[in-house]
Specification:
CATH superfamily of the largest domain: Aminoglycoside phosphotransferase (APH), C-terminal lobe
Number of helices: 13
Order of helices and strands: EEHHEEEHEEHHHHEEEEHHHHHH
Structural class: alpha+beta
Distance between the termini: 49 Å
Number of domains: 2
CATH class of the largest domain: Alpha Beta
Largest sheet: 5 strands, antiparallel
Shape: globular
Strand order of the largest sheet: 3-4-5-7-6
Helix content: 40-55%
């Protein structure tokens, strides 16, 4: 793959999709670029008489160019997206949800507004957002997203934070977001007809269809066979799960913490790029998958971190106990939770960056590989431990 190179803009290393670092798809943010961006945001413009904003730290996250920036007025977080991935309306959806949570006591980044009051700005083929720095310590900022939390105490704190977010989300009644790359949804797993839902999902994402046709002539049968059992068992519960806007990506590096110790508590929530209308219990399943399974571990038998999973579940249920249908649905959703986001990653990697290796990883290793692990001995032990704890009564 050949990355885009724009005049005057360099590249920086980012987290690879498996392990290590990779060449960035997007040019790194540069100080001259930031000085131009300041003309759109009064808070930045007023802070820069005779000065140039300085990049303090460039994020290694791969899907956009992001940096912590120093100005005379203080520090800000700047994020630049390719407009095909996030345009202004998409960012405004995320900002409105975060603002709703902020009013209800969740510490979230404050999005800066331009002169017209808009919190996202389009410049050519780019879309920018600028946030104030949230309170707390960015303890996991250099850690890959698939690495579990470091301790049971942190897992419990993350569970509490997720429950607080779900309680605060109540009353935010925006419709589900339109299809776009890098977005979690319930467009497949919530539908009774798995095959038809899969066809509909792919039909609205031509890049996904093109890639699947190129890599697996029997992709429909492959995916349906992998998901059929948990999907069928979930269907009687679907009508009992209340819709709710959720974060969809609450892992340790999307939190700022009270300190760097293993006993730290979650302080602030960041990165609402995957947020959407969904179910609270599906968001909990995603949090368990992101924070208590070591997907980058070379030995599959060592991937499941059951004490972390039980601690995260305990922290969540201490503030928001699960109903009967949610308890039944949670283990099933762990097997299904990554389905649609994996396909959305294919949409990004094949439709935007033309990265065949990463698109293949998203399909073979993430979508199918995660399901295979849950069917392995270690995966069954992980799910059985959760089921046993859920059957034991109040947590």
């Amino acid at each position: 793959m050949t990355s885009r190179v724009l005049p005057g803009l360099g590249h920086a290393g980012v987290h690879a999709m498996d392990t290590g670092m990779a060449h960035a798809d997007w040019p790194a943010l540069q100080e001259q670029e930031l000085a131009g961006l300041a003309q759109h945001f009064p808070e930045l413009r007023s802070a820069l008489p005779g000065t140039t904003p300085r990049v303090l730290w460039a994020s290694p996250r791969p899907f956009a160019a992001s940096a912590r920036v120093q100005t005379r007025a203080g520090e800000f977080f700047v994020k630049r997206h390719d407009a095909r991935v996030r345009d202004v309306p998409a960012l405004l959806e995320e900002h409105r949800f975060a603002a709703h949570l902020g009013v209800r006591g969740i510490d979230v980044p404050r999005a800066l507004a331009d002169g017209a009051g808009c919190t996202a700005v389009a410049v050519g083929n780019w879309t920018y957002e600028v946030h104030a720095i949230v309170a707390g310590v960015d303890a996991y900022r250099d850690v890959q997203s698939w690495v579990p939390v470091r301790s049971n105490d942190q897992a419990r704190a993350l569970g509490r934070c997720l429950a607080q977010l779900h309680l605060a989300s109540v009353g935010f009644d925006a419709p589900a977001r339109a299809p776009r790359p890098l977005l979690a949804s319930l467009d497949i797993i919530a539908r009774a007809d798995l095959a038809q839902a899969l066809e509909t999902f792919v039909a609205t994402r031509p890049a996904v269809l093109g890639f699947l046709e190129s890599i697996d002539a029997h992709w429909r049968a492959t995916i349906c066979a992998a998901m059929a059992r948990p999907h069928a068992l979930l269907q009687p519960l679907v009508a009992l799960l209340a819709p709710l806007w959720v974060h969809n990506d609450l892992h340790a590096s999307n939190l700022f913490w009270t300190d760097r110790s293993d006993q730290a508590s979650a302080r602030s929530v960041i990165d609402f790029g995957l947020c959407n209308r969904g179910w609270a219990v599906a968001d909990l399943a995603t949090a368990l998958e992101r924070n208590t399974i070591a997907w980058l571990e070379s030995d599959p038998a060592r991937m499941g971190r059951i004490p972390l999973a039980l601690s995260l579940l305990e922290g969540y249920c201490a503030l928001r106990p699960l109903g009967t249908a949610e308890r039944q649905a949670l283990p099933l959703l762990l097997e299904l939770a990554h389905l649609e986001y994996s396909l959305s990653e294919v949409d990004y990697f094949w439709g935007i960056t033309r990265n065949e290796r990463n698109a293949t990883l998203a399909y073979q290793d993430f979508l199918l590989g995660h399901v295979r692990w849950f069917g392995s001995r270690a995966g069954r032990e992980y799910l059985d431990a959760l089921r046993l704890r859920l059957r034991e009564g109040p947590l």
